[in-house]
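quick one
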Amino acid sequence: MKYLSEFRDEEIVRTLLNKIRKCVTKPWNIMEVCGGQTHGLVRHGLLQMLPDQIRMIHGPGCPVCVTPVSLIDKAVELALEHDVILCSYGDMLRVPGSTLSLQQARAKGGDIRILYSPLEAVSIARQNPNREVVFFAVGFETTAPANALSVEQAYRQKLKNYTVLSAHVMVPPAMEAIMSDPDTKVDGFLAAGHVCTVMGLSEYVPLVEKWKMPIVVTGFEPVDLLEGIYMVVSQLENGEYRLENQYKRVVGKDGNRQAVDLVKSVFEYRDREWRGIGEIPMSGLFLAQKYRDYDATLKFGPLKERISEDSGCLSGDVMKGKIKPHECPHFGKGCTPEKPLGAPMVSSEGACAAYYNYATQESTE
Amino acid sequence: MNKSVKVELNCPAPVNEFDSITIGHGGGGKLTQNLLKSGVFSLLDNEWLREQGDAATIQLNGKTAFSTDTFVVSPLIFPGGTIGDLAVNGTVNDLAVSGAKPQYLSLSFILEEGLEMKLFQQILHSIRDACEEADVKIITGDTKVVEKGKGDQIFINTTGIGEMHSKSKMGMNRIKKGDAVLLSGSMARHGITIMSKRNGLEFETKLNSDTRPLHRICLELIDTFGSQIHLMRDPTRGGVANVLNEIAEQTGKGIQLNEKVLPVEDEVAGACEMLGLDPLYVANEGLFVAIVDAEIAEECIELIRKWEYGSSAVAIGKVTEDHPGKVVLHSAIGGRRVLAQATGELLPRIC
Ligand code: SF4
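structure w/ iron/sulfur cluster:
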């Protein structure tokens, strides 16, 4: 933990806050794209420490929050009606589907297992040759390589009982969608550090050019976040727009080529629906032709019945930065982590849950 | 610092000819008798069990504390303990933080058909050792067997009785503004140890659970400081944050914590970072929170630190009249955030 402590140093934090205060003269809206960053801002109490002119907007960066209801319904259907062993990351369990969440499906007897890695799911498939094993693959570019690897492994081992229900989404197309929205208020972005560890920086260059706004690739610790904010604000104040990398200690320019190649060989990009936001062109990962035997939606067919997902949740507006979580009329009333109306109240990375759990001054007063 | 668990597998008498539990062991007949006699009674032997009556008779003096808890942990054996010592220490500690000296326990098993006899023996041995360490007697109990698939190998219920310390004057209504909030050791060790052994989540750690009895420390605190100890609680499931939230909610007072001094071992903190969990919400076993008069806070800490299990005791915050009903954490970098009550199961995050 020594490694982290220097990024949580009170002195450095104070110095950075002073630098931001000195630099800022106008109000700016900065979107942190990643849910991990939202979590960091709230967990360390950073939001109230920032000068009033800086308004942080919480982006669509929680993969759980943007997974469409139809995919959750499909996962529930697989677990309950096809008797598969459904493996998932923990966060997915509480997200409401149109009738049940996976947690409720588990209580109804579904064999639903929480895993930390899709490779674990491959070994479960190997150990249970008579059962179908489905990995519910959610996440951004960060979790995609491990998932691609699991498909690769299953392919090489000629496993016949392993498939993937892919809900993978990509961050840059979502940023593009946010900027294309005429109502958008975003002046600059903190891009998600982890995502760039894998994908590198190149995808952000066209965004910076097209929308003429600063993007700073940023980490998750208090010092990272403040440094990232400072870098965005100083560009904005100087009328500049550049791609900068605050997270150099982790993110290299080219990312992890091997991981990118693996993802690109196993998956292909297609249009994908985002919960609360709608369809975003070329933003989803689907299994490539060569691996179609490992596609759960092909093997088990499409969702039987699609139920409307209108719960009154305003997650789209939250994720596009149009409202803050506590400005949603359901926040803390009809919608709490115990009884969530929408996904952002469920996942630990979700903006509504982050606000609710760590209820900042801003959201409680 | 860690308690070493003595687990011997050489049972003093042969259990019986079965190597796993069968439905017959719960039938109340000869098999049940054999199981109890050779397995349970011989290990936990005392005058009450020898009687084998339908109820044990005891003599109680003065005010008595009474507590029950059921243990369903998985895995059954984990670094630093078993479901058996957890079941003993859990109830012992519930009595301890209530200000009582734990004396007698009941012990009930729900066994699933197919439970390996060797494993059951190992758990029984750990129960015996925990009773010896805590100086409590098991005086009554029950065993039921359920069909395969209807239980998770073994569930244990313990109920305990203890004599209240005459100087104990604890209660929510005694908590007042300015009181110090003390923690007897570092957080989240048990929860993280168990999680590191869970299917699909396994990760390497040298951690041990902190299952252990706390009554000696708790009783000495009450003996020394009497009514100045305002409340004690053991933050097991739900962690320190939930216990403090309950206190804030029930008293209508605020609790202010200082993140900088919160004791978390490096390895635990690392695992929490990795899993995206907040150590304040992770389960503990051998830990207690005490709310005490600010005047005696320093002396209390000194006293707790003299004990093996209390060597890292520390004051983590205070009771305030600001933000009534809420627990507010002053973050290490100078920010503030409200610590809310956690929701249900702790789920590791995705990336
Ligand atoms: S508070 Fe609940 S209903 Fe409102 S946007 Fe957040 S998740 Fe949706």
